[in-house]
Amino acid sequence: MQPLLFASEYESLENILSNRFDNQFIVGISHSRFDQSLDILNYADKLESTKPKEALINSYYLGYRFDQWKLSFESNDSSGEVERLSIPRFIETDVKSETFTISYNFHENNNSLIQIGLLHRNEDQDPVTIDCYAFGETVIGGSCNEAELNVLNSEAYRTSGELIYEPVLRTSGHSKSKGIYLRLSSKSLGLLNFNHTFSFKTSEINQDFTSSILDTSDSFIRGLTVDNRNAGQLLDQFKDELPQTTPWKENTFKYSVSNLIPVGENFAISGMYSFIKVKRKDYLKNPSKQDFTDNHLIDLSLFYSLTENSLLYLKLSASSNYLIGENPLAYNRRSNHLFDHPYGQVNAGLILNF
């Protein structure tokens, strides 16, 4: 499982604040957080064996508008930690993403503005090494004392005589997304003045792992009996439940509707609802787990104007099915059971316009 947060802060802000700034440059920073003290939707309590303990994401973005065009770049650094009832007790992951967008205002009148845009996003998960892993009652290792089955690093033993055992798993991930969106923005502010955004995104996901013990063809190891089970069958069953190593695609449709309501001279509040539908291609299902394809998102934000050219905001986000459609790397046949529950997070940020 990868304890990540919603992917694009810039995309969310553009849906709400599109064309509300007078100057050409926009620079923004934001910090998003999830931990168990902020888990008002009790997401972690609904999970049994693996639970998110903490997740953080720092976003940096900038935009430049000239004539009818707008260019933007966003960089996200995400880190997260999950806790488990069995070995390993904790798993940490780090993911970096970069998003480029370009949009064009192709129709404008006194009341509204219509934009069309393209996006390109890359996501990279840093390699994670898992020394030992409990598969049912059996611990596969690794150098931990509990390991009942492991593979010796033969090269280290030949050169130094040390007994060093190979970790059970090294894993990493990468996704590449391309998309198009259409945004209809109201130029007026108020309860009945809405912005509508329609987007379609296709993502190619690659999850990779290497494991000396899971890939071993050693007849002695595979012929062992561990906890009254054949070791070869046990290793094959474990391997079959890992994320597939062949690429698959996610096609994601998203519709968002939002509005922005001024409150006095310096404050404004906003609400946004989004519906997401995902369709997967070349995805290998886990026959013992249910897959999920729909998500509903709600964002509630409070904005405060520090100066004429600076804006602070606080945002609460909630989704009906964890991160479906938001982070392609988070969903696979190993982690899909985690997407059956509502999820929420808190975000704060600063926007400068000059």
Structure description:
- By secondary structure, the chain is mainly beta.
- The protein contains 4 helices and 16 strands.
- Strands 1-2-3-4-5-8-9-12-13-14-15-16 form a 12-stranded antiparallel beta barrel.
- The radius of gyration is 23 Å and the shape is elongated.
- The two termini are 41 Å apart.
- The relative contact order is 0.17.
Morphology:
elongated
> What is the makeup of the main sheet?
12 strands, antiparallel, barrel
End-to-end distance: 41 Å
**Which structural category fits the helices and strands?**
mainly beta
- Rg over C-alpha atoms, rounded to the nearest angstrom: 23 Å
Residues in helix, %: under 10%
* Beta fraction: over 45%
Low-confidence stretches: none
Q: Kindly state the mean pLDDT as a whole number?
A: 89
Please count the beta strands (DSSP E, at least 2 residues each).
16
Given the structure, what is the number of helices?
4
Order of helices and strands: HEEEEEEEHEEHEEHEEEEE
Main sheet: strand order: 1-2-3-4-5-8-9-12-13-14-15-16
Write a brief structural summary.
With 354 residues, this protein is mainly beta.
Please outline the helices and strands.
Layout: H1 9-17, E1 25-35, E2 50-66, E3 69-84, E4 90-108, E5 112-130, E6 133-135, E7 138-140, H2 154-160, E8 169-186, E9 195-210, H3 219-222, E10 225-226, E11 229-230, H4 231-240, E12 248-263, E13 267-281, E14 294-307, E15 310-319, E16 343-353
Antiparallel strand pairs: 1-2, 1-16, 2-3, 3-4, 4-5, 5-8, 6-7, 8-9, 9-12, 10-11, 12-13, 13-14, 14-15, 15-16
